[in-house]
From TrEMBL:
<protein>
    <submittedName>
        <fullName>Intracellular sulfur oxidation DsrE/DsrF family protein</fullName>
    </submittedName>
</protein>
<feature type="signal peptide">
    <location>
        <begin position="1"/>
        <end position="31"/>
    </location>
</feature>
<keyword id="KW-0732">Signal</keyword>
<dbReference type="InterPro" id="IPR006311">
    <property type="entry name" value="TAT_signal"/>
</dbReference>
<dbReference type="InterPro" id="IPR027396">
    <property type="entry name" value="DsrEFH-like"/>
</dbReference>
Length: 154
């Protein structure tokens, strides 16, 4: 009788241990399957702008092909802001396609750089539809890094 209770208690502890592993495993797997990437563009160079879009597309396809989620933010400041300007972006058409077909990729313009351009040009240059603005592009990257985003400058 004593052995029976001990065996049942051991079985109960084993079942609880297995149950807790099963409960924890999906949460850990979900956390591991969600990826966050921030891409910096700060150069007025069409080659680098295309590289940023190539990296975003490749990373997005890679993780979606594995059934995993990825969120990608492209942060533009200094000369790289031209990438997001409606009146001069050398990658305007491709960027428009991204905004329509890749909801996991967002584009963020530096407000300080926009203000600098507005002062130089006597008007604020128009952004491509769908682009958001943050006050300080570098600070946005820092905050993303502090939230465990991977920051890459292609």
């Amino acid at each position: 009788m004593i052995h029976g209770r001990a065996n049942r208690r051991a079985l109960l502890h084993a079942a609880l241990a297995v149950g807790s592993l099963i409960a924890i495993r999906p949460a850990a797997a979900q956390a591991a399957e969600f990826h966050r990437l921030a891409l910096q563009i700060s150069d007025d160079d069409p080659v680098k702008m295309r590289a940023v879009l190539d990296v975003a597309a490749n990373v997005s396809r890679h993780y979606s092909g594995q059934g995993e989620d990825v969120e990608i933010a492209v942060v533009a400041f200094n000369g790289g802001l031209d990438m997001l300007l409606a009146d001069r972006s050398p990658v305007k058409e491709r960027l428009g396609n991204f905004l329509k077909s890749m909801p996991n990729v967002s584009f963020i313009a530096c407000g300080n750089t926009l203000e600098t351009l507005a002062a130089k040009e006597d008007k604020r240059p128009p952004l491509i539809d769908g682009v958001s603005v943050t006050q300080v592009g570098v600070a946005a990257l820092m905050e993303l890094a502090e939230k465990s985003w991977t920051i890459v400058r292609p």
